[in-house]
Recover the amino acids of this structure.
C-alpha cells in the first residue's frame, strides 16, 4: 500500500496535512517503539485521528492483528473484549488511559498499555532506518478482528483476512467508484468495518485523500466539506435523515423551490436536479459526486427525495463478516 506520489497529501486534519511520504515515515517510526510476534493482537482504543491510522498500520508492520475498539466503552465492556481476544498490547491516548487501566486490572492476562501522545507528534525517521516489510506473509493471515455491537448478545469478534479486505477494495476500485483524485470524509468511527474500509483502507490503498472531521457539529461538517473540496461522503441513515429534514424544511418554506422539487420528483434527472438545487450542493462543498450509505437501511421516501434534489446515493448492503460489501444500490 501507499506506493503512490509520495508528495501527495494523504491525510487532512484541520490545518494539519500529512503527505504519503510522511504517512509512511510516521507508521515506521511508531512501529519501532514496540514489537509483536506474528499473530499477536493489538487493541486500538482511541478516537479517529491521523495517529489512529499510524497505530493501525504500525500493528501490521509488526505482523500483528488489529482489534479496533469503541473508545466510549466502559471498563467492564473493554475488559470483556480483552479477555476474549487476549491482546498483547493496547494502544490508547491519555483520554482513554483511566478506562484502559481499570479494564486491564480486571482481566486474567492484561496487555501492555502503550500510551500515545497526539499533541507531541511522531519523530519521523527515514524509511530505510527500519528495514521493516509491511506486506503480510500470507494474504490468508488474519488482519483484523472487528467486534460486533452485541445487539443480540455479547459482542463477538469477526476475524477478517488480508484477502477479505482486499477483495472488497478491489471491487469498488474495479467499478471506478473511487479513484486517486478523490477526497473522502472520515466522519464515522473506524471500529466499524464500513468506515474502516471506506475512509481508511480503500482510499489510502488507491492514493486518495482522507479528510478528518473530529467534531460532529453541523457547522464544522459543512465548513470542512467546503474548505477541503470533499468528493465522497460516507454516512449512516440517521445522518442522511438529518440532512434530508433540514433541506426539506427550507425547500418547503419557499413555494418556488417546492414547485421545482415536485417537478424534479417527476422528471428524476440527477444532472438537472444538481443544477436546479445548486445552492444546496454548494453548501456541501459543490464537489461531492457520491454519497455512500451503510450500517442500516435508508427510508425509501428519504432516498427518493434526496435523489430528486440531485444527491447520488450509493446504498451498500453487507455485514462485518463480508468486509463489508456484498452489493450496493444503484448497481
Amino acid at each position: 500500500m501507499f506506493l503512490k506520489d509520495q508528495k501527495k497529501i494523504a491525510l487532512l486534519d484541520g490545518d494539519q496535512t500529512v503527505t504519503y511520504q510522511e504517512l509512511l515515515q510516521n507508521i515506521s517510526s511508531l512501529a519501532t517503539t514496540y514489537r509483536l510476534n506474528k499473530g499477536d493482537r493489538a487493541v486500538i482504543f482511541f478516537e479517529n485521528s491521523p495517529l489512529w491510522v499510524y497505530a493501525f498500520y504500525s500493528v501490521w508492520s509488526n505482523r500483528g492483528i488489529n482489534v479496533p475498539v469503541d473508545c466510549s466503552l466502559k471498563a467492564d465492556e473493554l475488559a470483556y473484549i480483552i479477555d476474549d481476544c487476549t491482546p498483547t498490547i493496547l494502544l490508547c491516548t491519555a483520554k482513554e488511559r483511566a478506562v484502559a487501566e481499570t479494564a486491564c486490572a480486571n482481566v486474567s492476562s492484561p496487555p501492555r498499555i502503550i500510551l500515545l501522545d497526539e499533541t507531541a507528534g511522531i519523530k519521523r525517521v527515514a524509511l530505510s532506518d527500519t528495514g521493516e516489510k509491511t506486506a503480510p506473509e500470507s494474504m490468508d493471515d488474519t488482519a483484523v478482528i472487528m467486534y460486533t455491537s452485541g445487539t443480540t448478545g455479547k459482542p463477538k469478534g469477526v476475524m477478517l483476512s488480508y484477502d477479505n479486505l482486499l477483495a472488497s477494495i478491489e471491487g469498488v476500485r474495479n467499478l471506478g467508484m473511487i479513484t486517486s483524485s478523490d477526497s473522502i470524509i472520515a466522519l464515522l468511527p473506524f471500529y466499524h468495518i464500513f468506515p474502516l474500509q471506506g475512509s481508511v483502507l480503500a482510499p489510502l490503498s488507491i492514493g486518495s485523500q482522507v479528510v478528518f472531521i473530529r467534531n460532529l457539529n453541523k457547522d464544522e461538517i459543512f465548513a470542512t466539506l467546503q474548505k477541503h473540496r470533499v468528493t465522497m461522503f460516507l454516512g449512516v441513515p440517521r445522518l442522511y435523515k438529518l440532512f434530508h429534514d433540514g433541506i426539506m424544511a427550507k425547500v418547503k418554506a419557499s413555494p418556488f423551490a417546492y414547485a421545482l422539487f415536485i417537478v424534479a420528483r417527476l422528471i428524476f434527472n440527477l444532472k438537472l436536479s444538481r443544477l436546479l438545487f445548486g445552492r444546496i450542493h454548494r453548501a456541501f462543498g459543490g464537489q461531492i459526486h457520491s454519497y455512500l450509505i451503510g450500517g442500516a437501511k435508508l427510508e425509501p421516501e428519504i432516498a427518493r427525495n434526496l435523489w430528486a434534489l440531485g444527491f447520488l446515493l450509493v446504498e451498500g448492503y453487507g455485514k462485518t463478516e463480508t468486509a463489508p460489501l456484498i452489493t450496493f444500490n444503484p448497481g
In short: Residues 236-329 form one domain. The first strand starts at residue 9 and ends at 13.
